[in-house]
Structure formats: C-alpha cells, structure tokens
C-alpha cells in the first residue's frame, strides 16, 4: 500500500528539522512541494532549501504541485474551507496516482507541526475516505510557531499551573481578556490585539520567526500596540506577505494562591 509521511518542518529555520524528519525525507520515493503563487515563493524556497541541505538520497524525486486557491465568494467560511479541502483532496489523489506506485511512498513538508492549524492530516483522511487510492500515513512532529515565539522571547508558555488558549484573531475577544490569562493568537489578519483596551495586558509578538527576517516586539500592550501595527504594516509591504503570532498575558505566576 502507498505510504504518505506528513513531516513537520518547523517555522522557517532549517535547523528546526528533527533527526526523525531528516531520516524520513531520505527514505521516501517522492517529496511533494507546494507552490502558492509568487507572493509566497519564499515559503516554497524554505522547503527547497531544507531538501537541498538534508536530502542526500539522490534517488528521491521532487514533484511540484499548485495548491488550489480558496474561493470565498457566495459561501460561508465553513463551506469555503470544506470546498477547498475537497479540491486539495482531488489534487493529492492525482499526485498519488500519477507519481507513486502502489507500494510507493511520498512526503509532504508541513510548516511548523502538522497538528496545529494545518489541514494536511484532514485532507489525507479525506483521500482515504474517497477510497480511490489505497494508502496509509504517518505524522512526524515539528516545532510550532508557538514554540518559536516563546523561545525567541525566552518566556514560558503558561503561568504556573494555569491553562493556555490557542485561538485566532477572529475569535480572540471571546476569551481574552476575561476568561483566560494566556492567549496565543494565530492567523490574525485583522490586528485583533489593537482593539483590546486593558491596562494590565502584556503582548509578546513575533513575525517571520525562525527566519533571518525575524522581528519580535514585547511590552505592555497599551505601550507597544501602535509600534506593532506600524512594524507589521511596513514588513508586510516589504515582503509582500507576513506570518505573525503573539501571546497575550494578564496576571502572573502564583497570583491566585494564598
Ligand atoms: C496555517 S497556520 C500554520 C501553523 C503551523 N502549523 C505551526 O505549527 O506553527 C499559519 C499561522 O501560523 C503562524 N506562523 C507560522 N509560522 C510563523 C512564523 N515563522 N512566524 C510567525 N508566525 C508564524 C501565524 O500565526 C500564521 O498565520
């Protein structure tokens, strides 16, 4: 049966790759490389750089494929994502039929870790459910952008014995401030932090983490919010794209213990 490896590659620094990931990349028949258009060419370049550094098995084939663009017109967010995943499943199915033998193996290089705001696992499950191409799969963990953020700021993710919420910009105000003391915000195109008015909130922000363009800013939210907005706008214009993440915090270790 075909075997697909979903390999976490970390967030832009080739040294994030685990030994397990490197060994896996060197044993497959094909490595599939996505392209998402010129604006995100740098992300495809990180994958190519990783392969150049670590793939020493000359027999491995590289297959580029175009990632379908998500359509948003005339449909809800959920419908839009569902349609998009269906399209990607068809793309994967064709890739496996065209480039893998029935006993062949392939790898996808997934940004960060495959379990965090990534749908490769879901899409492979869809391909299996369609049952036109028999396959099994394995997942190799990678360093997430959350770990890259906390490492760059040299902070623990959680306060002692307290929970953390991982959320999106769209849903941030449902929980912070008020419900959780630590919120990690990803996929925030709307600068949700800039709408929070809380004198006790701190922010630890990072963009292009792990890459040579990494930028970090930290401080009391009220003091650094404008600076982050301006830095983000400038960086986005310069690169043509941005990936940023931040941790918001209120409270401190042991502040709820007598
Ligand atoms: C589709 S999610 C993928 C997350 C990824 N699977 C992970 O483990 O981090 C993309 C979001 O992750 C965050 N992100 C990923 N890489 C990043 C980086 N190098 N610097 C800052 N944020 C990053 C951003 O919030 C971005 O909007």
TrEMBL record:
Q: Does the keyword Magnesium apply?
A: no
Which UniProt keywords are given for this protein, alphabetically ordered? Answer: Cobalamin biosynthesis, Methyltransferase, S-adenosyl-L-methionine, Transferase
GO function term, MF aspect, one = precorrin-6A synthase (deacetylating) activity
Instruction: Give EC number(s), comma-separated.
Output: 2.1.1.152
**UniProt-listed InterPro entries:** 4pyrrol_Mease, 4pyrrol_Methylase_sf, 4pyrrole_Mease_sub1, 4pyrrole_Mease_sub2, CobF
Q: Which pathway does this polypeptide act in?
A: Cofactor biosynthesis; adenosylcobalamin biosynthesis
As its record notes, the protein acts as a catalyst of: precorrin-5 + S-adenosyl-L-methionine + H2O = precorrin-6A + acetate + S-adenosyl-L-homocysteine + 2 H(+)
SUPFAM superfamilies, per the entry: Tetrapyrrole methylase (SSF53790)
Which biological process terms from the Gene Ontology are attached to this UniProt entry? methylation
Q: Which domain of life is it from?
A: Bacteria
Please give the NCBIfam families that the UniProt record associates with this protein: CobF
Q: What is this protein called?
A: Precorrin-6A synthase [deacetylating]
Please name the source species.
Rhizobium mayense
């Amino acid at each position: 049966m075909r075997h697909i490896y979903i390999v976490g590659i970390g967030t832009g620094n080739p040294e994030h790759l685990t030994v397990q990931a490197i060994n896996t990349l060197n044993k497959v028949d094909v490595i599939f490389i996505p392209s998402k258009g010129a604006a995100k060419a740098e992300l495809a370049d990180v994958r190519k750089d990783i392969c150049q550094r670590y793939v020493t098995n000359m027999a491995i084939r590289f297959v580029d494929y175009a990632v379908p663009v998500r359509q948003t017109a005339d449909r809800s967010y959920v419908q839009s994502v569902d349609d998009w995943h269906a399209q990607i499943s068809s793309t994967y199915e064709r890739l496996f039929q065209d480039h893998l033998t029935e006993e062949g193996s392939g790898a996808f290089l997934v940004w960060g870790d495959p379990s965090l705001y990534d749908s490769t696992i879901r899409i492979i499950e869809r391909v299996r459910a369609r049952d036109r191409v028999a396959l099994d799969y394995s997942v190799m963990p990678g360093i997430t952008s959350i770990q890259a953020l906390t490492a760059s700021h040299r902070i623990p993710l959680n306060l002692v014995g307290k929970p953390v919420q991982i959320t999106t910009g769209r849903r941030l105000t449902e929980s912070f401030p008020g419900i959780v003391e630590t919120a990690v915000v990803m996929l925030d195109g709307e600068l949700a932090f800039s709408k929070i008015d809380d004198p006790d909130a701190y922010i630890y922000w990072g963009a292009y983490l792990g890459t040579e363009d990494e930028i970090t800013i930290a401080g009391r939210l009220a003091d650094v919010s404008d600076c982050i907005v301006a830095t983000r706008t400038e960086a986005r214009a310069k690169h043509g794209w941005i990936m940023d993440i931040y941790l918001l915090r209120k409270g401190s270790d042991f502040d709820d213990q007598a």
